[in-house]
Amino acid sequence: MEVNSESTRGILGYRHLQCLLLFLAFGLMFATRVNISIAIVAMMDKKTANSNFPEYAWSERTKSYIFSSFFCGYILLQIPAGGWSRRFGARLLMLYSIAINSLLSLLIPLSVGLGDWPLLCTLRFGQGLAQSVVLPAIATIMSKWEPIEERSAIQTFIYCGSKLGLVVMLAVSGKLCSSSWGWPSTFYLPGALGLLLSALWFVYGTNTAPDCKHISARGAMNEESLIQIEKEKKKQKEAESTPMTVPWRSICTSIPFLVLLANHYAYDWFFWMLLTQMPTYIKNVLGKDIESNALISALPYLCLLSLSLLLCPFANWLERSKLLHATVSRKIYNTIGFWIPAISLISLGYLQRDEADLAIGLLTATVGLSTAIYFGYALNHLDLAPNHAGTLIGIVNCLSSTMGIVAPLVVGFIVTDTSNIYQWRTVFFLSSAIAFVGNLLFLLFGTAKVQSWNEAPRTRTLSESEQMEQLFETNSKVIIPNVTTYKKYNFPSLP
After folding, report:
1. What is the CA radius of gyration of the chain?
2. Phi-psi map region of 187: left, alpha, beta (phi>0 left; psi -120 to 50 alpha)
Protein backbone atom coordinates (compact mmCIF):
# COMPACT_ATOMS: atom_id res chain seq x y z
CA MET A 1 0.00 0.00 0.00
CA GLU A 2 1.38 3.42 -0.94
CA VAL A 3 1.20 6.05 1.77
CA ASN A 4 0.66 9.68 0.87
CA SER A 5 3.40 11.74 2.51
CA GLU A 6 1.12 14.77 2.67
CA SER A 7 -0.89 13.13 5.41
CA THR A 8 2.14 12.65 7.65
CA ARG A 9 3.75 16.07 7.56
CA GLY A 10 1.97 17.48 10.56
CA ILE A 11 2.47 14.58 12.95
CA LEU A 12 4.94 14.41 15.78
CA GLY A 13 6.87 11.22 15.22
CA TYR A 14 10.00 9.47 16.43
CA ARG A 15 12.10 11.60 14.10
CA HIS A 16 11.15 14.53 16.36
CA LEU A 17 12.15 12.51 19.43
CA GLN A 18 15.54 11.90 17.83
CA CYS A 19 15.74 15.64 17.18
CA LEU A 20 14.91 16.45 20.82
CA LEU A 21 17.49 13.99 22.17
CA LEU A 22 20.18 15.43 19.90
CA PHE A 23 19.18 18.96 20.92
CA LEU A 24 19.64 18.00 24.59
CA ALA A 25 22.92 16.24 23.84
CA PHE A 26 24.31 19.28 22.01
CA GLY A 27 23.26 21.53 24.89
CA LEU A 28 24.85 19.20 27.43
CA MET A 29 28.12 19.13 25.49
CA PHE A 30 28.37 22.91 25.53
CA ALA A 31 27.40 23.03 29.22
CA THR A 32 30.33 20.76 30.12
CA ARG A 33 32.55 22.76 27.77
CA VAL A 34 32.00 26.13 29.48
CA ASN A 35 31.34 25.23 33.14
CA ILE A 36 35.05 25.54 33.86
CA SER A 37 34.94 29.26 32.98
CA ILE A 38 32.89 30.12 36.10
CA ALA A 39 34.06 27.26 38.32
CA ILE A 40 37.72 28.25 37.99
CA VAL A 41 36.95 31.66 39.49
CA ALA A 42 35.74 29.95 42.69
CA MET A 43 38.52 27.34 42.54
CA MET A 44 41.19 30.08 42.58
CA ASP A 45 39.48 32.35 45.13
CA LYS A 46 37.23 30.58 47.62
CA LYS A 47 36.18 33.89 49.20
CA THR A 48 34.08 34.55 46.09
CA ALA A 49 31.94 31.44 46.68
CA ASN A 50 31.50 28.71 49.29
CA SER A 51 34.70 28.88 51.33
CA ASN A 52 34.38 25.30 52.59
CA PHE A 53 35.92 23.93 49.42
CA PRO A 54 39.61 23.84 48.42
CA GLU A 55 41.36 26.77 46.78
CA TYR A 56 44.15 26.42 44.22
CA ALA A 57 46.94 28.97 43.70
CA TRP A 58 47.23 28.65 39.93
CA SER A 59 48.91 31.28 37.77
CA GLU A 60 47.18 32.82 34.78
CA ARG A 61 49.42 30.75 32.52
CA THR A 62 48.35 27.55 34.28
CA LYS A 63 44.73 28.60 33.92
CA SER A 64 45.28 29.05 30.17
CA TYR A 65 46.62 25.47 30.01
CA ILE A 66 43.41 24.25 31.64
CA PHE A 67 41.25 26.12 29.13
CA SER A 68 43.32 24.93 26.16
CA SER A 69 43.50 21.26 27.15
CA PHE A 70 39.90 20.64 26.06
CA PHE A 71 40.57 21.80 22.50
CA CYS A 72 43.75 19.74 22.22
CA GLY A 73 41.46 16.72 22.31
CA TYR A 74 38.59 18.33 20.42
CA ILE A 75 40.51 18.81 17.15
CA LEU A 76 41.80 15.24 16.87
CA LEU A 77 38.86 13.05 15.81
CA GLN A 78 36.52 15.34 13.86
CA ILE A 79 37.63 14.19 10.41
CA PRO A 80 37.79 10.37 11.03
CA ALA A 81 34.57 10.49 13.08
CA GLY A 82 32.52 10.90 9.90
CA GLY A 83 33.80 7.57 8.55
CA TRP A 84 33.34 5.87 11.91
CA SER A 85 29.74 7.05 12.07
CA ARG A 86 28.99 5.39 8.73
CA ARG A 87 30.97 2.24 9.49
CA PHE A 88 30.09 1.50 13.11
CA GLY A 89 26.84 3.44 13.45
CA ALA A 90 26.42 7.01 14.66
CA ARG A 91 24.07 5.88 17.45
CA LEU A 92 26.87 3.94 19.16
CA LEU A 93 29.37 6.74 18.65
CA MET A 94 26.94 9.26 20.14
CA LEU A 95 26.27 7.00 23.13
CA TYR A 96 29.99 6.64 23.90
CA SER A 97 30.48 10.39 23.51
CA ILE A 98 27.70 11.37 25.94
CA ALA A 99 28.58 8.70 28.52
CA ILE A 100 32.36 9.27 28.52
CA ASN A 101 32.00 13.05 28.60
CA SER A 102 29.59 12.79 31.56
CA LEU A 103 31.75 10.34 33.54
CA LEU A 104 34.81 12.55 33.12
CA SER A 105 32.80 15.54 34.31
CA LEU A 106 31.87 13.65 37.49
CA LEU A 107 35.54 12.74 38.08
CA ILE A 108 36.93 16.27 37.73
CA PRO A 109 36.46 17.43 41.38
CA LEU A 110 38.18 14.29 42.64
CA SER A 111 40.96 14.55 40.07
CA VAL A 112 41.85 18.12 41.08
CA GLY A 113 42.33 17.01 44.68
CA LEU A 114 44.48 14.03 43.68
CA GLY A 115 46.58 15.36 40.81
CA ASP A 116 46.11 19.14 40.82
CA TRP A 117 45.94 20.93 37.46
CA PRO A 118 47.86 18.32 35.34
CA LEU A 119 45.22 15.67 36.05
CA LEU A 120 42.47 18.24 35.48
CA CYS A 121 44.00 19.01 32.07
CA THR A 122 44.07 15.28 31.29
CA LEU A 123 40.35 14.88 32.01
CA ARG A 124 39.50 18.04 30.06
CA PHE A 125 41.53 16.64 27.16
CA GLY A 126 39.47 13.44 27.39
CA GLN A 127 36.24 15.46 27.32
CA GLY A 128 37.42 17.25 24.20
CA LEU A 129 38.26 13.92 22.60
CA ALA A 130 34.79 12.56 23.44
CA GLN A 131 33.05 15.66 22.08
CA SER A 132 35.04 15.73 18.83
CA VAL A 133 32.81 13.02 17.35
CA VAL A 134 29.50 14.79 18.14
CA LEU A 135 29.04 16.94 15.03
CA PRO A 136 29.83 14.14 12.53
CA ALA A 137 27.58 11.74 14.47
CA ILE A 138 24.66 14.20 14.55
CA ALA A 139 25.04 14.91 10.84
CA THR A 140 25.04 11.19 10.03
CA ILE A 141 22.00 10.42 12.19
CA MET A 142 19.89 13.27 10.88
CA SER A 143 20.79 12.48 7.27
CA LYS A 144 18.91 9.20 7.87
CA TRP A 145 16.01 10.68 9.86
CA GLU A 146 15.33 14.09 8.29
CA PRO A 147 12.79 14.41 5.49
CA ILE A 148 14.12 16.95 2.99
CA GLU A 149 11.27 19.39 3.59
CA GLU A 150 11.95 19.48 7.37
CA ARG A 151 15.73 19.67 7.21
CA SER A 152 16.24 23.40 7.82
CA ALA A 153 13.89 23.58 10.79
CA ILE A 154 15.25 20.43 12.43
CA GLN A 155 18.91 21.36 12.04
CA THR A 156 18.31 24.91 13.29
CA PHE A 157 16.58 23.50 16.38
CA ILE A 158 19.37 21.01 17.12
CA TYR A 159 22.16 23.58 16.83
CA CYS A 160 20.28 26.06 19.02
CA GLY A 161 20.81 23.48 21.77
CA SER A 162 24.46 24.54 21.98
CA LYS A 163 23.59 28.17 22.70
CA LEU A 164 20.89 27.20 25.19
CA GLY A 165 23.26 24.87 27.05
CA LEU A 166 25.85 27.62 27.18
CA VAL A 167 23.37 30.20 28.50
CA VAL A 168 21.87 27.91 31.15
CA MET A 169 25.25 26.67 32.42
CA LEU A 170 26.71 30.14 32.70
CA ALA A 171 23.56 31.44 34.40
CA VAL A 172 23.27 28.75 37.09
CA SER A 173 26.95 28.08 37.78
CA GLY A 174 27.29 31.12 40.04
CA LYS A 175 24.43 29.89 42.24
CA LEU A 176 25.95 26.42 42.30
CA CYS A 177 29.38 27.70 43.36
CA SER A 178 27.83 29.71 46.20
CA SER A 179 25.55 26.87 47.35
CA SER A 180 26.32 24.26 49.98
CA TRP A 181 27.56 21.95 47.20
CA GLY A 182 30.21 24.47 46.12
CA TRP A 183 32.12 24.60 42.86
CA PRO A 184 32.22 20.77 42.42
CA SER A 185 28.46 20.89 41.72
CA THR A 186 29.14 22.71 38.43
CA PHE A 187 30.70 19.43 37.28
CA TYR A 188 28.42 16.99 39.14
CA LEU A 189 25.13 18.41 37.81
CA PRO A 190 25.85 18.21 34.05
CA GLY A 191 27.66 14.90 34.62
CA ALA A 192 24.62 13.34 36.28
CA LEU A 193 22.24 14.75 33.67
CA GLY A 194 24.55 13.41 30.97
CA LEU A 195 24.38 9.87 32.34
CA LEU A 196 20.58 10.14 32.41
CA LEU A 197 20.59 11.36 28.81
CA SER A 198 22.91 8.55 27.73
CA ALA A 199 20.41 6.05 29.20
CA LEU A 200 17.57 7.69 27.26
CA TRP A 201 19.67 7.64 24.12
CA PHE A 202 20.50 3.95 24.64
CA VAL A 203 16.77 3.16 24.79
CA TYR A 204 15.37 5.51 22.15
CA GLY A 205 18.28 6.53 19.91
CA THR A 206 18.55 4.77 16.55
CA ASN A 207 20.56 5.10 13.36
CA THR A 208 17.59 4.91 10.99
CA ALA A 209 13.80 4.78 11.14
CA PRO A 210 13.59 1.04 10.27
CA ASP A 211 15.90 0.32 13.24
CA CYS A 212 13.52 1.99 15.69
CA LYS A 213 11.75 -0.67 17.77
CA HIS A 214 9.47 1.76 19.58
CA ILE A 215 7.40 3.02 16.67
CA SER A 216 3.87 1.65 17.03
CA ALA A 217 2.41 -0.61 14.39
CA ARG A 218 -0.05 2.12 13.39
CA GLY A 219 2.58 4.85 13.23
CA ALA A 220 5.39 2.79 11.77
CA MET A 221 4.18 2.93 8.18
CA ASN A 222 3.50 6.66 8.23
CA GLU A 223 6.75 7.53 10.02
CA GLU A 224 8.99 5.38 7.91
CA SER A 225 7.10 6.04 4.69
CA LEU A 226 7.52 9.81 5.00
CA ILE A 227 11.24 9.47 5.50
CA GLN A 228 11.64 6.75 2.88
CA ILE A 229 9.62 8.71 0.31
CA GLU A 230 11.87 11.68 0.82
CA LYS A 231 14.96 9.48 0.72
CA GLU A 232 13.82 7.99 -2.55
CA LYS A 233 13.44 11.48 -3.99
CA LYS A 234 16.96 12.29 -2.90
CA LYS A 235 18.31 8.96 -4.17
CA GLN A 236 16.69 9.55 -7.55
CA LYS A 237 18.40 12.92 -7.86
CA GLU A 238 21.75 11.52 -6.74
CA ALA A 239 21.48 8.62 -9.16
CA GLU A 240 21.58 11.06 -12.07
CA SER A 241 25.27 11.67 -11.45
CA THR A 242 28.13 9.58 -10.09
CA PRO A 243 30.07 10.75 -7.01
CA MET A 244 32.87 13.26 -7.46
CA THR A 245 36.44 13.12 -6.27
CA VAL A 246 37.49 15.82 -3.80
CA PRO A 247 39.74 18.38 -5.57
CA TRP A 248 42.15 18.79 -2.66
CA ARG A 249 44.76 20.79 -4.55
CA SER A 250 42.20 23.21 -5.96
CA ILE A 251 40.63 23.69 -2.52
CA CYS A 252 43.96 24.37 -0.81
CA THR A 253 45.03 26.90 -3.46
CA SER A 254 41.65 28.66 -3.76
CA ILE A 255 41.83 32.29 -2.58
CA PRO A 256 38.09 32.45 -1.61
CA PHE A 257 38.47 29.26 0.45
CA LEU A 258 41.61 30.53 2.20
CA VAL A 259 39.73 33.75 3.01
CA LEU A 260 36.88 31.65 4.39
CA LEU A 261 39.37 29.74 6.56
CA ALA A 262 40.90 33.03 7.79
CA ASN A 263 37.44 34.23 8.85
CA HIS A 264 36.85 31.01 10.77
CA TYR A 265 40.15 31.54 12.57
CA ALA A 266 39.23 35.15 13.36
CA TYR A 267 35.79 34.33 14.74
CA ASP A 268 36.95 31.32 16.77
CA TRP A 269 39.64 33.48 18.40
CA PHE A 270 37.04 36.16 19.13
CA PHE A 271 34.47 33.68 20.48
CA TRP A 272 36.69 31.51 22.68
CA MET A 273 38.74 34.41 24.03
CA LEU A 274 35.58 36.06 25.34
CA LEU A 275 33.93 32.85 26.51
CA THR A 276 36.89 31.61 28.54
CA GLN A 277 38.20 34.96 29.83
CA MET A 278 35.07 37.03 30.40
CA PRO A 279 34.28 35.65 33.91
CA THR A 280 37.83 36.49 35.04
CA TYR A 281 37.57 40.00 33.58
CA ILE A 282 34.18 40.58 35.20
CA LYS A 283 35.45 39.50 38.64
CA ASN A 284 38.84 41.21 38.70
CA VAL A 285 38.24 44.34 36.66
CA LEU A 286 34.53 45.03 37.14
CA GLY A 287 34.52 43.71 40.72
CA LYS A 288 31.38 41.55 40.47
CA ASP A 289 30.71 38.64 42.85
CA ILE A 290 30.45 35.16 41.41
CA GLU A 291 26.62 35.00 41.31
CA SER A 292 26.24 38.24 39.38
CA ASN A 293 29.36 37.25 37.40
CA ALA A 294 27.64 34.12 36.12
CA LEU A 295 24.46 35.96 35.14
CA ILE A 296 26.45 38.71 33.41
CA SER A 297 28.52 36.09 31.55
CA ALA A 298 25.31 34.41 30.33
CA LEU A 299 23.62 37.64 29.19
CA PRO A 300 25.67 38.17 25.98
CA TYR A 301 25.00 34.60 24.85
CA LEU A 302 21.30 34.92 25.59
CA CYS A 303 21.40 37.97 23.33
CA LEU A 304 23.30 35.91 20.73
CA LEU A 305 20.64 33.17 20.83
CA SER A 306 17.75 35.65 20.60
CA LEU A 307 19.24 37.60 17.69
CA SER A 308 20.01 34.36 15.83
CA LEU A 309 16.34 33.35 15.97
CA LEU A 310 15.13 36.85 15.06
CA LEU A 311 17.53 37.37 12.15
CA CYS A 312 16.88 33.96 10.58
CA PRO A 313 13.47 34.75 8.95
CA PHE A 314 14.67 38.20 7.84
CA ALA A 315 17.81 36.74 6.25
CA ASN A 316 15.74 34.07 4.49
CA TRP A 317 13.33 36.71 3.16
CA LEU A 318 16.21 38.90 1.94
CA GLU A 319 17.77 35.94 0.13
CA ARG A 320 14.51 34.89 -1.52
CA SER A 321 13.64 38.45 -2.55
CA LYS A 322 16.89 38.82 -4.56
CA LEU A 323 17.15 42.46 -3.46
CA LEU A 324 20.87 42.01 -2.92
CA HIS A 325 23.40 39.87 -4.70
CA ALA A 326 24.52 36.98 -2.50
CA THR A 327 28.11 38.26 -2.36
CA VAL A 328 26.95 41.73 -1.26
CA SER A 329 24.64 40.24 1.37
CA ARG A 330 27.40 38.02 2.80
CA LYS A 331 29.80 40.99 3.06
CA ILE A 332 27.26 43.26 4.74
CA TYR A 333 26.42 40.66 7.40
CA ASN A 334 30.10 39.83 7.86
CA THR A 335 30.98 43.47 8.38
CA ILE A 336 28.23 43.88 10.99
CA GLY A 337 29.34 40.68 12.76
CA PHE A 338 33.05 41.58 12.85
CA TRP A 339 33.68 45.31 12.71
CA ILE A 340 30.95 46.63 15.04
CA PRO A 341 31.96 44.15 17.82
CA ALA A 342 35.60 45.09 17.16
CA ILE A 343 34.78 48.75 17.83
CA SER A 344 32.83 47.94 21.00
CA LEU A 345 35.70 45.75 22.24
CA ILE A 346 38.19 48.59 21.76
CA SER A 347 35.87 50.87 23.73
CA LEU A 348 35.67 48.24 26.48
CA GLY A 349 39.41 48.48 27.01
CA TYR A 350 39.11 52.09 28.21
CA LEU A 351 36.39 51.55 30.83
CA GLN A 352 37.14 51.55 34.56
CA ARG A 353 35.51 49.70 37.47
CA ASP A 354 33.03 52.52 38.18
CA GLU A 355 31.70 52.12 34.61
CA ALA A 356 30.71 48.48 35.08
CA ASP A 357 27.17 48.88 33.70
CA LEU A 358 28.48 50.37 30.45
CA ALA A 359 31.09 47.62 30.24
CA ILE A 360 28.40 44.95 30.59
CA GLY A 361 26.39 46.64 27.84
CA LEU A 362 29.42 46.66 25.54
CA LEU A 363 30.16 42.99 26.28
CA THR A 364 26.57 42.09 25.45
CA ALA A 365 26.70 44.10 22.22
CA THR A 366 30.07 42.58 21.28
CA VAL A 367 28.85 39.00 21.55
CA GLY A 368 25.24 39.59 20.46
CA LEU A 369 26.02 41.47 17.25
CA SER A 370 28.58 38.86 16.25
CA THR A 371 25.61 36.61 15.41
CA ALA A 372 25.48 38.38 12.02
CA ILE A 373 28.46 36.32 10.86
CA TYR A 374 26.16 33.27 10.74
CA PHE A 375 24.63 34.92 7.68
CA GLY A 376 28.02 36.06 6.37
CA TYR A 377 31.11 33.89 5.96
CA ALA A 378 29.46 31.01 7.86
CA LEU A 379 27.26 30.29 4.80
CA ASN A 380 30.11 30.65 2.33
CA HIS A 381 30.85 26.91 2.20
CA LEU A 382 27.63 26.33 0.25
CA ASP A 383 28.31 29.36 -1.95
CA LEU A 384 31.77 28.27 -3.07
CA ALA A 385 31.18 24.57 -3.62
CA PRO A 386 27.76 23.03 -2.95
CA ASN A 387 29.08 19.63 -4.01
CA HIS A 388 31.90 19.74 -1.46
CA ALA A 389 30.34 21.82 1.34
CA GLY A 390 30.63 19.00 3.87
CA THR A 391 34.33 18.59 3.12
CA LEU A 392 34.93 22.34 3.45
CA ILE A 393 33.10 22.48 6.79
CA GLY A 394 35.14 19.55 8.10
CA ILE A 395 38.43 21.19 7.12
CA VAL A 396 37.73 24.65 8.52
CA ASN A 397 36.06 23.41 11.72
CA CYS A 398 39.00 21.14 12.51
CA LEU A 399 41.68 23.75 11.75
CA SER A 400 39.97 26.77 13.29
CA SER A 401 39.24 24.91 16.54
CA THR A 402 42.95 25.34 17.31
CA MET A 403 42.02 28.90 18.31
CA GLY A 404 40.41 27.37 21.38
CA ILE A 405 43.94 26.28 22.31
CA VAL A 406 45.85 29.37 21.18
CA ALA A 407 43.55 32.12 22.53
CA PRO A 408 43.72 31.15 26.25
CA LEU A 409 47.49 30.60 26.00
CA VAL A 410 48.07 34.04 24.48
CA VAL A 411 45.81 35.71 27.04
CA GLY A 412 47.67 33.88 29.83
CA PHE A 413 50.95 35.21 28.44
CA ILE A 414 49.70 38.83 28.18
CA VAL A 415 47.58 39.05 31.35
CA THR A 416 49.82 38.34 34.31
CA ASP A 417 47.80 40.59 36.66
CA THR A 418 44.07 40.01 36.14
CA SER A 419 43.14 43.34 37.71
CA ASN A 420 45.38 45.32 35.35
CA ILE A 421 43.12 47.12 32.86
CA TYR A 422 46.07 47.94 30.60
CA GLN A 423 46.89 44.27 30.07
CA TRP A 424 43.25 43.52 29.29
CA ARG A 425 43.28 46.47 26.87
CA THR A 426 46.10 44.77 24.96
CA VAL A 427 44.03 41.58 24.70
CA PHE A 428 40.97 43.50 23.48
CA PHE A 429 43.03 45.46 20.93
CA LEU A 430 44.60 42.25 19.61
CA SER A 431 41.18 40.58 19.28
CA SER A 432 39.75 43.63 17.50
CA ALA A 433 42.69 43.67 15.08
CA ILE A 434 42.17 39.97 14.26
CA ALA A 435 38.45 40.59 13.62
CA PHE A 436 39.22 43.66 11.50
CA VAL A 437 41.77 41.85 9.30
CA GLY A 438 39.52 38.80 8.88
CA ASN A 439 36.61 40.84 7.58
CA LEU A 440 38.89 43.07 5.45
CA LEU A 441 40.13 39.97 3.63
CA PHE A 442 36.54 38.87 3.11
CA LEU A 443 35.58 42.27 1.69
CA LEU A 444 38.54 42.24 -0.70
CA PHE A 445 38.62 38.62 -1.82
CA GLY A 446 35.46 36.91 -0.56
CA THR A 447 32.77 35.87 -3.00
CA ALA A 448 29.54 33.89 -3.15
CA LYS A 449 30.27 32.75 -6.70
CA VAL A 450 30.43 28.98 -7.23
CA GLN A 451 34.04 28.00 -7.88
CA SER A 452 35.18 26.10 -10.95
CA TRP A 453 36.52 23.24 -8.83
CA ASN A 454 32.99 22.56 -7.55
CA GLU A 455 32.50 20.51 -10.71
CA ALA A 456 35.39 18.11 -10.27
CA PRO A 457 35.96 15.26 -12.77
CA ARG A 458 33.82 12.22 -12.15
CA THR A 459 36.03 9.18 -11.89
CA ARG A 460 33.90 6.53 -10.26
CA THR A 461 32.50 3.65 -12.28
CA LEU A 462 29.95 1.14 -11.09
CA SER A 463 31.21 -1.96 -9.37
CA GLU A 464 30.32 -5.41 -10.67
CA SER A 465 27.67 -5.85 -7.99
CA GLU A 466 26.12 -2.48 -8.86
CA GLN A 467 26.05 -3.47 -12.53
CA MET A 468 24.24 -6.67 -11.59
CA GLU A 469 21.67 -4.65 -9.64
CA GLN A 470 20.96 -2.76 -12.83
CA LEU A 471 20.48 -6.04 -14.72
CA PHE A 472 18.20 -7.81 -12.27
CA GLU A 473 15.09 -6.69 -10.42
CA THR A 474 14.23 -8.00 -6.97
CA ASN A 475 11.87 -10.60 -8.43
CA SER A 476 14.81 -12.05 -10.41
CA LYS A 477 13.31 -11.09 -13.75
CA VAL A 478 16.04 -10.19 -16.19
CA ILE A 479 16.11 -6.56 -17.39
CA ILE A 480 17.05 -6.28 -21.03
CA PRO A 481 19.26 -3.16 -21.18
CA ASN A 482 19.30 -0.96 -24.25
CA VAL A 483 22.28 0.71 -25.87
CA THR A 484 21.87 3.88 -23.80
CA THR A 485 22.00 1.86 -20.58
CA TYR A 486 25.22 0.15 -21.67
CA LYS A 487 26.87 3.46 -22.46
CA LYS A 488 25.68 5.17 -19.27
CA TYR A 489 27.04 2.52 -16.93
CA ASN A 490 30.20 1.59 -18.85
CA PHE A 491 29.09 -1.95 -19.78
CA PRO A 492 31.01 -3.80 -22.46
CA SER A 493 29.89 -3.02 -26.00
CA LEU A 494 26.86 -4.88 -27.28
CA PRO A 495 27.70 -7.61 -29.84
Report:
1. 25
2. alpha
